[in-house]
Amino acid sequence: xxxxxxxxRIFAPESAAATFRLGALTKALRGAGxxxxxxxxxxxxxxxxxxxxxAAEGIEVSRxxxxxxxAGYVRGTSPT
Length: 80
Fold this sequence. Notes:
With about 80 residues, this protein is an alpha/beta fold. Helices cover about 25% and strands about 30% of the residues.
């Protein structure tokens, strides 16, 4: 078993085509027996309640604060 680390500015539960592709990739890697860790942004507050689903998949997700514009898109990293 190997360790796979994926760094992405977007990941579930945010809704986008990239989210679905990355979700399928991480699940396939996990299904193949790899240890999967995702480094990504903290989702918008409206989506934080959906974070409980991640642990059920056996995928470690580390989230970091980011700056978002009025539409909710990631625009930079947060100093904290």
